[in-house]
Design a protein that fits this description.
By secondary structure, the protein is an alpha/beta fold. Helices cover about 35% and strands about 25% of the residues. The strands form 3 sheets. The chain has a 6-stranded mixed beta sheet, covered by helices on one side. Strands 7-8-9-10-13-14 form a 6-stranded mixed beta sheet. Strands 11-12 form a two-stranded antiparallel sheet. The longest helix is centred in the C-terminal third of the chain and has 15 residues, at about 190-200. The structure holds zinc ion (2 copies).
Length: about 250
């Protein structure tokens, strides 16, 4: 099977939508279209026709393009089946048990609540679309969940193979990385990564995709077990959930 073409589409001020194009079938999905115009431009440039919209969660900066794109392309909207009320125009509700199929491809759906109560990730072709749950070097705010829920959701993502490419909802990597550095100043993998991130951002390039392996080494929200991080927080004997909660609280005030 030919790998999917994946195109990053910057939207609004710091959102990313993603086009997934299957050359064999011609199917083309967009993940989390914040707004329609940049998605339409990217489609036109490539000569692709939109067949599906995939939503990780209901926030407007991830769904704002849904209805105008559906009107123009007659595409099918796919999102969390347990939360239909918050997805206007949703055609196909999916969850972890149902999964989904994109043409001939099996798509894993992971339920990863905490940023919102019905947040999901789509995993296919060695790529995970993690919305606002897992960011490069960060995680989403706990709008509708607890630290325990976020730790459970992140732990689920951590079971994906290390070479899984991570496509997240926002370009927050540089500020996330600066915060991470305050917690683990001795983490050499982190310093090396920030060097690359700063160079990419200086050229205006996205820092996406990351990989699960890189996130495990450099993302403080996947590292509540880190001795250095715990020492910084003064929480050597706390549980992973307590450490994650404190890390999130500090990031909210960073
Ligand atoms: Zn969100
Ligand atoms: Zn967002």
């Amino acid at each position: 099977m030919t790998p999917l073409d994946i195109e990053i589409v910057p939207c609004l001020s710091d959102n990313y939508a993603y086009l997934l194009h299957d050359r064999e079938s011609g199917l083309c999905a967009v993940v989390d279209p914040s707004e329609a115009p940049p998605v339409k431009l990217a489609l036109a440039r490539r000569g692709w026709k939109l067949s599906h919209i995939l939503n990780t969660h209901h926030h407007f900066d991830h769904t704002g393009g849904n209805l105008p794109l559906k009107e123009e392309f007659g595409c099918e909207i796919v999102g969390p089946g347990k939360d239909r009320a918050r997805f206007e125009g949703l055609d196909t509700g999916v969850d972890e048990a149902t999964g989904w199929r994109f043409g001939v491809r099996d798509v894993r759906v992971l339920e990863i609540p905490a940023h919102t109560s019905s947040h999901i990730a789509f995993v296919l072709d060695g790529a995970a679309f993690t919305g606002d749950t897992l960011f490069a070097m960060g995680c989403g705010r706990l709008f509708e969940g607890t630290p325990a829920m976020m730790w459970s959701s992140l732990s689920k993502l951590m079971t994906l193979p290390d070479d899984t490419r991570v496509y997240c909802g926002h370009e927050y990597t540089q500020s996330n990385g600066r915060f991470a550095l305050t917690l683990e100043p001795g983490n050499a993998a982190h310093a090396a990564r920030m060097h690359e991130v700063d160079a990419m951002r200086a050229k205006g390039q996205p820092t996406i995709p990351s990989t699960m392996g890189l996130e495990k080494r450099t993302n403080p929200f996947l590292r509540p077990m880190s001795a250095e991080l715990r020492k910084t927080l003064g929480m050597e004997n706390a549980s992973d959930v307590e450490v994650l909660g404190e890390t999130r609280r500090r990031k909210d005030n960073f």
